[in-house]
Amino acid sequence: MPVIVASDLDRTLIYSAAALALTMPDARAPRLLCVEVHESKPLSYMTETAAQLLTDLGDEAVFVPTTTRTRKQYQRINLPGPPPTYAICANGGHLLVDGVSDRDWHARVLARLADECAPLSEVQDHLLRTADPVWVRKHRVAEDLFAYLVVERELLREEWVKELGEWAENRGWTVSLQGRKIYAVPGPLTKSAAMREVARRTGADLTLAAGDSLLDADLLLAADRSWRPGHGELADAEWTAPAIRALPERGVLAGERILREFLQTVRSPR
């Protein structure tokens, strides 16, 4: 029976230069592989060791990249290993099969959002009215499913984020602060639901997951075994659960450790 490995990407398996956390002496820093280029500039990296681990994992399990990125943002990532048959984008809003969004899945997601939470337009209007132009750099809507702001983190009022979270919760939405981005995402829009759909289609009898942010919590809880790195929203909150292992590594070395844990678990007798 196949094993599904559903992993978040940014700050879990791949890292921007600012998120690498290379705290060791320069001469001992790991060799890095660039896995994303945007506007002719290198953007995301993993260690060369992690790249080999991911290649091996892709040969032995159903690896499912699982991201809040839009489809366009995801498709500029060039991960090592065999091309994944399935990928989860827009926090579960799109399930890609061989690179193409599954129309039936997307229609089911839209129907659930319409039934269970406030419309995107209401949330977008609230963000535009209440966010301070002093610290907001960009307002964005992703795939007509959720909204996010790009902010100057050092100027951001933490009280505003808390107030936004409370306002959003009352309307069926979730707020997540990740680096310079504040996400407002409908509660029913989840990575876990899409992972369960992949498990149903493949007949998988074991699901593994990893992630670092609040938007990954449902995914980690839904999998049979999960890991989180020593950085990110979940680590900051010391969040855990019985089937979730909190790793001490931070930055790009955490991505390497997560892949090693995945591969070891896939190869272990069940």
From TrEMBL:
The keyword Nucleus does not apply. GO terms for molecular function: hydrolase activity. It comes from Streptomyces atrovirens. Keywords: Hydrolase. Transmembrane segments: none annotated. This is HAD family hydrolase.
